[in-house]
Write a structure and sequence with these properties.
Elements (H helix, E strand, L loop, with lengths): L5 E6 L3 H12 L4 E4 L13 E2 L1 H9 L10 E3 L1 E5 L4 E5 L6 E3 L2 H14 L3 E3 L5 E4 L2 E4 L2 E10 L6 H5 L5 E15 L6 E6 L3 E9 L2 E8 L6 H4 L4 H7 L3 E2 L4 E10 L3 E2 L2 E3 L14 H18 L2 H27 L1 H13 L1 H11 L9 H13 L1
Helix pairs in contact: 1-3, 1-7, 2-7, 7-8, 8-9, 9-11
Length: 370
């Protein structure tokens, strides 16, 4: 193993770690990325990139080929009583794309940016001079922990103190089926939520998230009869895989010589669809802070960009806990679709129109009467 010292060594070669590598290279740092897996790295997720995620990727110099994904124009919420649809602002669009394609794309950009990539690394450890692989030194002036929810780097650096945490369980698969909608659909049921994301002209991603660790997708579909009928007879295009969906805030995300990024630095529930966007924005923030030589800037920006997704996660998870509240809320939003679109604009960080107090009052009355 080469003893050349990198400016930055990143533990974790998923989308978060690769995004950090690209952002750091733009600032002129030499970067090494290390991961125990071998590309393409897959993970259970809804595979829908919201417009702010697409924009954050573009700032890193990464654009998704139109042939590689499927665009969607907004979000649709449904339960057994109501359906409400909201479009993104004019000119904004999301894209559904296979996680494996996204990872391969980021790997190619990292290679083009002359990031040193080490795959299949065993016994990766944090050490005084950087990282080590099977006891061999991988020296670096700075270390980034981007190694996911169960981050070994976070634990080794004693940055694992949690301010708040909620856990749920997600499962995902794909069906060979032409998308029937230009929207990502979120179906609310008594035991969790089903997400439908178009990812190709002949394929949809279906994910289910709940508080029940043993509730698999096939059984969960019984809670969504219209969706189950649509999927009946469709061929599965992938094996079902699962993952934890965690809303987690950490007390600290950095110390001297080390910072956490992506899910290793805290996360929001998958119900928001904002996990990727957080990682991409954190990558930019960390690169700027390292360039300025002040990690306090990263900590402040990390809190700032996490605040809105955590707020939206709390609001949406409250709907999961209270079926009556969810029925009232979706019913009122179905009668006030412009209010739903306003919430959607806020969710993706777009400019939100100012609502007249009388309109807010009328919506509140409608909600209480529902």
């Amino acid at each position: 193993m080469s003893e050349a010292i990198s400016d930055v060594c990143i533990a974790g070669g998923g989308p978060a770690g690769l995004a950090a590598a690209l952002a750091l290279r733009k600032q002129g740092f030499t970067v090494t990325v290390v991961d125990c897996a071998v590309p393409p790295i897959d993970k259970a997720c809804g595979e829908g990139l919201m417009p702010d995620s697409v924009a954050a990727l573009k700032r890193l110099g990464v654009e998704i080929d139109a042939c590689a994904g499927f665009p969607f124009k907004g979000i649709r919420f449904s339960d057994e009583h109501s359906t409400v649809t909201g479009d993104f602002p004019a000119g904004a669009a999301g894209v559904g794309v296979r996680r494996t394609y996204l990872h391969e794309l980021l790997v190619k950009h990292a290679q083009a940016a002359h990031v040193r990539l080490i795959w299949g690394a065993k016994n990766l450890r944090l050490c005084e001079r950087g990282l080590s692989i099977q006891g061999e030194q991988l020296p670096a002036r700075f270390v980034v922990g981007a190694d996911g929810q169960k981050s070994l780097i976070r634990s080794s650096a004693n940055l694992h103190e949690v301010k708040s945490e909620r856990r749920r369980y997600g499962f995902r698969t794909h069906y060979r089926l032409a998308p029937w909608s230009e929207y990502v659909e979120l179906h609310w049921g008594p035991r969790g939520q089903a997400y439908i994301t178009p990812v190709a002209e002949d394929e949809v991603c279906v994910a289910f998230i709940s508080r029940h660790s043993k509730l698999r997708l096939e059984e969960a579909l019984d809670d969504f009869p219209p969706l189950k009928r649509r999927l009946a007879g469709a061929q599965r295009a992938s094996h079902e895989i699962g993952a934890m969906s965690i809303s987690r805030r950490l007390k600290r995300v950095y110390k001297d010589g080390l910072a956490l990024l992506g899910d290793a630095s805290g996360s929001v529930d998958a119900v928001t669809g904002e996990g990727m966007c957080l990682a991409f924005k954190q990558a930019d923030a960390l690169a700027a802070a390292l360039s300025a030589g002040d990690l306090r800037l990263y900590a402040a920006r990390h809190r700032e960009i996490s605040a809105r997704p955590h707020l939206m996660a709390s609001l949406m998870l409250s709907l999961e806990l209270h079926n009556g509240l969810r029925r009232h809320a979706l019913g009122s939003l179905a009668r006030w679709p412009r209010f739903f679109e306003t919430l959607l604009k806020f969710h993706i960080g777009a400019t939100v129109p100012v609502w007249h107090p009388r309109q807010l009052f009328s919506f509140g009355l409608d909600f209480l009467a529902g």
